[in-house]
Every structure is written in C-alpha cells, then in structure tokens.
Amino acid sequence: MRLRFSTCFRICLVILAWCAGASALPRKTFHLSGNQPPVLAGNAVIDIVLREQAVWVAAGEGLSLTGDSGLTWRTWTREHGFGKGGLSAVAVRGQEIWIATAYDTLIEGQGSLPAGGGLAYSTDGGGSWTTVPQPKDARDVTSYKPTTTHINNLTYDIALTDSAVWIASFAGGLRRSMDHGATWDIVTVDGAPFDVVGHLSHRMFSVFWDGEVLWAGSAGGVHKSTDGGDSWTTFTHQNQPKSISGNFVVAIGCQRWDDRKIIWAATIEALDEGEYRAVSRSEDGGLTWDIELEGEWAHNFCCDRQNVFVATDNGVFKSESFGYTWTVFRNVVDSETGDPLLTTEMYSVGAGPGTWTWLGSSDGLAATPDEGLTWKIFRAFEIPGESGNPLTYAYPNPFSYTRDNLLGGDGHVRFQYRTAEPENVTVEVYDFSMALVRNVVQDKPRPVPGDYAEAWDGRNDLGEPVANGVYFYRLRLSGGGEYWGKVIILN
Known about the structure:
Elements: H1 5-14, E1 29-31, E2 47-51, E3 54-58, E4 63-66, E5 74-76, E6 86-93, E7 96-107, E8 111-122, E9 128-132, E10 157-160, E11 165-168, E12 174-177, E13 185-187, E14 204-209, E15 214-218, E16 221-225, E17 233-235, E18 248-257, E19 260-268, E20 278-282, E21 290-292, E22 298-304, E23 307-312, E24 315-319, E25 327-329, E26 346-350, E27 357-361, E28 364-368, E29 376-378, E30 392-395, E31 413-419, E32 423-430, E33 436-446, E34 450-456, E35 469-477, E36 482-489
Antiparallel strand pairs: 1-9, 2-3, 3-4, 4-5, 6-7, 7-8, 8-9, 10-11, 11-12, 12-13, 14-15, 15-16, 16-17, 18-19, 19-20, 20-21, 22-23, 23-24, 24-25, 26-27, 27-28, 28-29, 30-31, 31-34, 32-33, 32-35, 35-36
C-alpha cells in the first residue's frame, strides 16, 4: 500500500519545501478501451494486494492484475486517468480500487524532491477510472497551517473503510474523504490544528483499517482510533514501558487467527538516541509491544492466518509462529531461466490461502507456489525485435554498478534478447577501443525459445570495476546470429 519508502522518506526528513499551490483540477473519468498489454506495469513493485485468485500489483508505471498466476495480465497506466509519476499507494475493497502516484521534481536550490501526482479510483473493478487531484489547501486558510503544494505532499498509503477513504500523505497529513475525493477533511491525531512543521505526529506515512479499528503511522508513533477517526490514542517509544522500537512508523498490518488479533508495525528510529529500527507487534491493542527482527528496515506486511510476512531490505521474512521464529526468502532465482532477482530489497509481499506467495522488489515480481522451492520471475521489458525495438539492448542504460540492481555489493546491467529456436549464447563486453573487457557468458544453453537476459556486474575479467565510459557488447548465438549493443557506465 505504499511507495518504496526509503528514498522519499530520507529526503523528507531533511527538508519540507513550501511552494505556491495551483488551484485544484476538476476530477475526470476515463473509460477502459482497447486490449490491455499482457505485461507487468514496471519492475519496481511497491505493493501487492490479493483478493482470492486476483493478484493486484502496483508498480512503477501503473497497476497490473492477474487472475491466473501470471499467465495473462491486465494493466492500467496514465492513459487511463492515473496521475503523473509511478504508483505510490493502492487499496482494494471489493470492486472499489484506489491508487496514488508520485514523482520527483527539481526545486532550485534544493535538488530533487518527491511530489504527489494525485489519486484515481474505480468502482467497477477497473472498468473506468476517475481522477482526483492531490489534496492541497487554499492559501487563505487561517485555522491551521495549510499545505498549498504538491511538493513532499505525496500519498504513501490508502485505507478504505465502510464510509470513507483515508490517505497518509506526509506533508499533506492524514486526510479523510466521505465523497470519493470531492472534498477532504484534515484529521490530526492529537487534536491540535494541523501543522506539519511543528508536529511530528501530523507527518503521516501509513494508514490501515483492520475492519474494526483505524490505525495510522506517523513520524510521532502509532495512532489508534475506535470511533472512525474522531478520537485517537497514541503509542510512542517514550510513553510505554513495553514500547515500539522507534517513532517513525512506515507500515502497519493486522494478523487474525482464531481469537487472536496481532498488530504489526514497521518502526524506524526517529529523534531519540534510544530508538532503533525493527518490527513491533502488539496482541493487546497497542497497550504493550514486543520487538521482532531488530535492525531490519521493514516496508510492508502480509498476514495469512497463522503466517506473517515482512518485506525488508534483506529479503522477505516469514513466521509461522506469530513472530517467535523466522525464515527468510532471499536470493530468489527463476527455476526455468536461472535468472535471479538482482536485489535483496523487497518492497512488498502478498500471500493467501490456496494461492502463491508473491514478492515485489526493485527488480521485478517473483512468485512461488511451493514455499520457495521453485520461483517464477515477472519483469516488464520491451520485446527485442518488435515494434521497432532493437534485437538486443541493455537496461538500465546508463548503468551505475554502485546503485543499480545491487546484489552482494555489486550492481548489474541486463542484456536483453530473444531466441527463436534452441541456442547456446555467448555475451562479450568490449571497451571503446574494442579490447575485450569481460566474457559474461560462454555457450550458455537456452534450450527453449523465448525472451532472456544476461547480467553483467560492471567488472572486467580480473574482477576490477571498469571506468566510466561507453562499452559495447556482442551477443553470439550458436545458430549463427551475431548482434551488437551499447551500454554507458556512469557512476
């Protein structure tokens, strides 16, 4: 239900940019037309929502849906009414779906800052979409300190209750709409007039409805409301003997099994030196908290009966014992192609009774039907040789081996290609003088025709990182084909 939090979060903790706000745009409705491309809508998978056999995947370029374990996909993007940027949040309740988008914008003297691209909703399962501008305040508001800009006002999380939609939007605070986004009320958990600069608890990151209780996570702790947001109880690292580990609360989940109800919170260190990052769990409605996975930066939860899954920077952790013992999904490799996820950072996870387990990362979507014994990896890419695309290409391009697709301390670039028959594949990298730099793979068997990629870590045959510059690669197929591509190294 949220954007990949770390990047925008770390920016937002340093500075709030207050700029002149434009007047609100009217809402628009877009109806679905034409066939949807059977692809994933991007490789940065920020959230996964399961509803029986339906798997909703929020990714960098849009929202994707599969009902057949990834055999076919239906995808919605900006052309269907989504705002600028990539998805930052999604919520699904029956046929009602809400999404939010966010993007980076350059501000003179401050560099790149995140901004809210607005929301969109569908009440017919995606058949049509209505756009909703990112909520902002009028400049002449005097009863509280208004947020008049979309800068740092991005929606990290969405919750749908019986009567309202709730959004957590950092500089925009916690807001509630009873009329599908036509109007918004600002809700403060401490009853004070809204002031995101003066109150840490007004800076909102997460909101969750467990069917009975509304939970919110801010820069000032965990907040609980049993009356639809009219009154709140706040839990911090400082106000309880058995407290949460840290006051920045970036995700909340709820686990139910028999008569047990456990609240899970991703609690990150804030201002107090005694705070630390971990997962905090409460089985008594927030009165006391136990600490699990100390040191882990958690991004998302999924609860399936007695199982809880936690997406973290170091993989997806799973507990079948309500958090007392843990296993971890890490080093995920596609069982058919041998292609790995080139990251251990997991942004999202989805699981449910009788369904596969799904993991979302910056390097695509992975799914397992058998508790991790076998994996299928899904990625978005342009098909080589079709629609004017080259027969092979590199991505990301330019490529930084200190930032892109980091696994085991090394970054990776992919050389994408397609085979029409069984082949043995060789990929070699050359520098600008056409001296051989690295033999990436040699006569690698690809016995089944299809789309493939070979990964290079930006090192030469001696294991040394190469210098910045332009490099060429040659793809040779045993059937006689030879193709060239180019990649720019930029660190």
